[in-house]
């Protein structure tokens, strides 16, 4: 899938930044690929890019409108269709990470055909996956897991990959969601894979490799989330991690989108080890990544110190403070590069 750049990011009329996490993630890791953002009235998210109309973006050289917003169920709101059609009529391709196929909407399909433009459905895989086998394969793997959805698993994996490469390890980021695919150019959206093949898709994403190579795997959902635990478990079994990092947001009381109480970090450590032993008996936790965006710096440092001491693990905010302490843990547990 070749998605033409630069991108024009469409945020729609989403109610908060979490609902625009695709666009924000692209900007955080590939800002040089982006030209501007398009926001509808009532949009409460902001990537920090210049606001543009679709026609201004097209005139400025944008090649693809990226639908950078998400919602429960991955639907395409009816009031967004007009903007997508306008982009196609302005000469832009359109790329989406939603569950619905762009071409399944007649107005969008007709506009793409009329203008000879490409529709990219990143969440729909073109690869046929086998069922997972659980066979031990060479290489080392780290998986980001979470106490909830949208707590920073993608950022943790990306930051860990960068920190390990900076330290001299050979590592690669394995994208398991639509934003990660936009950022890395390779991967598969596991929440769109048929349930029987999720673990097989995870094996495909993190294949046998050189024994010294580390694959850093983006996590999905949470083992404790009643909506998404299925994809989380399949990813855990298929990725066969040697190590995992627990990702957490400290101000939440319930899981996103449901009334289920948030599990503790220890709950997640224990459950991940219990379930992960099916395909890797030596699985272990190597650190805790906390999204401290809602805390000031002193509060964040105090919280990290408290959590790290409680669990006997390095605790950090990947964005604020980096991943060096967790890389130190990798060196201590598995050896220097």
Q: Please give the count of helices.
A: 11
Which residues sit in consecutive blocks of at least 5 with pLDDT less than 50? none
SSE ordering: EHEHEHEHEEHEHHEHEHEHEH
* CATH fold field value of the largest domain: Rossmann fold
CATH homologous superfamily grouping of the largest domain: P-loop containing nucleotide triphosphate hydrolases
**Tally of domains:** 2
**Mean pLDDT metric:** 95
- β-strand percent reads 15-25%
CATH C-level label of the largest domain = Alpha Beta
Rg: 20 Å
Q: Give the strand order of the largest sheet, numbering strands 1, 2, ... along the chain.
A: 7-8-6-9-10-11
Indicate the CATH architecture of the largest domain. Answer: 3-Layer(aba) Sandwich
Helix content bin: 25-40%
What composes the largest sheet?
6 strands, parallel
Domain D-glutamate N-acetyltransferase-like C-terminal: 129-327
Domain D-glutamate N-acetyltransferase-like N-terminal: 42-124
Pfam families: DUF1611, DUF1611_N
Q: Which descriptors apply to this entry?
A:
single chain, 337 residues, Rossmann fold, globular, P-loop_NTPase, DgcN-like, DgcN-like_N
Provide structural commentary.
The protein is α/β, with parallel strands linked by helices. The protein is built from eleven helices and eleven strands. The radius of gyration is 20 Å and the shape is globular. 34% of the residues lie in helices and 16% in strands. It has helices at residues 21-30, 54-59, 81-89, 106-115, 153-167, 178-184, 198-205, 229-239, 265-276, 297-311, 324-334, and strands at 7-12, 34-39, 64-67, 93-96, 119-121, 140-146, 170-174, 213-217, 243-248, 284-290, 315-316. It has two domains: 7-121, 3-Layer(aba) Sandwich (Rossmann fold); 140-334, P-loop containing nucleotide triphosphate hydrolases (Rossmann fold), CATH 3.40.50. Residues 42-124 form the D-glutamate N-acetyltransferase-like N-terminal domain. Residues 129-327 form the D-glutamate N-acetyltransferase-like C-terminal domain. It holds the Pfam family DUF1611.
């Amino acid at each position: 899938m070749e998605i033409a750049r630069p991108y024009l990011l469409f945020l729609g009329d989403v109610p908060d930044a979490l609902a625009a996490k695709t666009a924000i993630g692209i900007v955080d890791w590939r800002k040089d690929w982006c030209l501007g953002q398009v926001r509808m009235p009532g949009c409460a998210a902001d990537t920090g890019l210049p606001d543009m109309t679709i026609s201004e973006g097209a005139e400025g050289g944008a090649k693809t409108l990226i639908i950078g917003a998400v919602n429960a169920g991955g639907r395409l709101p009816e009031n967004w269709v007009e903007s997508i059609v306008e982009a196609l009529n302005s000469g832009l391709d359109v790329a989406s990470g939603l569950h619905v196929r762009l071409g399944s909407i007649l107005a969008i399909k007709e506009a793409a055909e009329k203008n000879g433009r490409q529709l990219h459905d990143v969440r729909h895989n073109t690869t046929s996956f086998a069922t997972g086998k659980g066979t031990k394969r060479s290489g080392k793997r780290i998986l980001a897991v979470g106490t909830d959805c949208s707590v920073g698993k993608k950022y943790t994996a990306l930051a860990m990959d960068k920190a390990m490469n900076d330290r001299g390890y050979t590592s690669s980021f394995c994208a398991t969601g639509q934003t990660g695919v936009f950022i890395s150019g390779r991967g598969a959206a596991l929440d769109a894979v048929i349930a029987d093949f999720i673990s097989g898709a995870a094996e495909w994403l993190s294949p046998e490799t050189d024994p010294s190579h580390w694959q850093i795997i983006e996590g999905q959902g949470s083992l404790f989330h009643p909506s998404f635990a299925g994809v989380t478990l399949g990813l855990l079994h298929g990725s066969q991690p040697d190590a995992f990092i627990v990702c957490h947001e400290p101000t939440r009381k319930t899981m996103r989108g449901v009334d289920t109480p948030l599990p503790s970090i220890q709950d997640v450590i224990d459950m991940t080890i219990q379930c992960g032993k099916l395909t890797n008996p030596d699985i272990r936790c190597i650190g805790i990544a906390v999204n401290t965006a809602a805390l000031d710096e002193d509060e964040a440092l105090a919280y990290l110190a408290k959590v790290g001491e409680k669990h006997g693990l390095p605790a950090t905010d990947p964005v604020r403070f980096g991943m060096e302490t967790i890389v130190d843990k990798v060196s201590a547990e598995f050896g220097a590069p």
